[in-house]
Amino acid sequence: MTNRQELPNQFLKPDISVAIIILAAGRSSRMPSDAGHKLLSTIDDVPLVRRMALRAIESKASHVYAITGFRHEEIEACLVGLDMTIAFNLAFASGMSSSLITGLNIPGAMDHDGILVLLADMPAITVENLDQLIAAFEMFGARAVIRAVHVGIPGNPVILPKALYHRALTLQADRGAKMLIETSGVEMVEIEIGEAAVIDIDTLDDLERFGGVPSPS
After folding, report:
1. Which residue intervals define the domain MobA-like NTP transferase in the entry (predicted)?
2. In terms of residue numbers, what domain contains 27?
């Protein structure tokens, strides 16, 4: 059963721990080759991947992990000095699921009550959006899947409760968490966060709409 809720930000209970795993391993294949990697593109002079990491760190999350893959050395250079854990996904070419699995396998990651899966190419996601989702996870006792939506359209981020971690470790190919959350039988709560839930950067036009500047290869 799916509940659709609009929840305000609220005080977070200290006994529920939510970590954020930022997926930043993809090839950026839909960007023109001369535009470089989208996560290295800058918005307001800040690389996109760093922009998202800063928002994750500023949120109420207990810890932040970033999973890198394609051009990982450059991506990781953008994250230098930030209070987070970075892991390289050797199997990044196999799809998004491998990055989630890499994140869950980091020592201590599965100790958290929930994992918020954040795509690194969603520049409209704010600290407030992240905190709103975390607050909803707490409100539902850290037992439900929390999914961001826009006018009922499923989007991202998603929070997975601990009950789904071991199933997530069995995901294959580029299915991410979508199939898992829709077939798990765990209660799913949809949280309206506005257009940010469905906006990502895949093309040069997408980047330009945010005033972004590509980073040539």
Report:
1. 21-183
2. 2-8+17-207
- Domain count for the chain, please give it: 1
**pTM score, whole prediction:** 0.91
Domain assignment present for 213: no
Question: Does 216 sit behind a cis peptide bond, omega within 30 degrees of 0 on the bond before it?
Answer: no
In whole angstroms, what is the distance from residue 2 CA to residue 145 CA? 10
Contact 147, 196 (CB under 8 A): no
Judge whether 1 and 187 are in contact, CB under 8 Å.
yes
Residues 98, 106, 123, 131, CA torsion sign? positive
Q: What is the pLDDT of residue 36?
A: 80
Which CATH number covers residue 151?
3.90.550.10
**pLDDT, tens digit, for every residue of 130-181?**
999 999 999 999 999 999 999 999 999 999 999 999 999 998 766 667 788 8
